[in-house]
Amino acid sequence: MVTEGPQDTREQLLRRISVDPRVAHGRPVVAGTRVWVTTVLDWLADGRTAEEILEEYPQLKPPDIRACVAYGAELTRFHDVTVGPV
């Protein structure tokens, strides 16, 4: 399990995400990297653990994973996502 210190606030987490048209074609990335937020979220959705993601992307830190989740949560506050029936 990934251990970490005190929890960052949502605002602190969101500062870990960067959107810059000069980096990764303007896709949201973990600040200071070219790791797409969607890559982290897709891996989590596929059942990968934070530890596996951190192993694959050693430039990331545990709060970066939480930042990606927080960013995804923020997007759903303002955008509807169409999904099929369950």
Describe this structure in words.
With 86 residues, the protein is mainly α. It has helices spanning 10-14, 37-45, 50-56, 62-78; strands spanning 17-18, 29-30. It is globular. The longest helix has 17 residues, at 62-78. 44% of the residues lie in helices and 5% in strands. Helix 2 crosses helix 4 (62-78). The protein has a two-stranded antiparallel ribbon.
Task: Produce the secondary structure layout.
Blueprint lengths: L9 H5 L2 E2 L10 E2 L6 H9 L4 H7 L5 H17 L8
Antiparallel strand pairs: 1-2
Helix pairs in contact: 2-4
Any key phrases for this structure?
5% strand; 86 residues; mainly alpha; 4 helices; two-stranded antiparallel sheet
Side-by-side strand order of the widest sheet: 1-2
Structural class label: mainly alpha
Q: DSSP helix count?
A: 4
Q: How far is it from the N-terminal to the C-terminal residue, by CA?
A: 31 Å
Shape: globular
* Oligomerization status of the protein chains: single chain
Q: What is the succession of H and E elements?
A: HEEHHH
Low-confidence stretches: none
Name the average pLDDT.
90
Helix content class: 40-55%
C-alpha-based Rg, rounded: 13 Å
How many strands, what sense, and barrel or not for the largest sheet? 2 strands, antiparallel
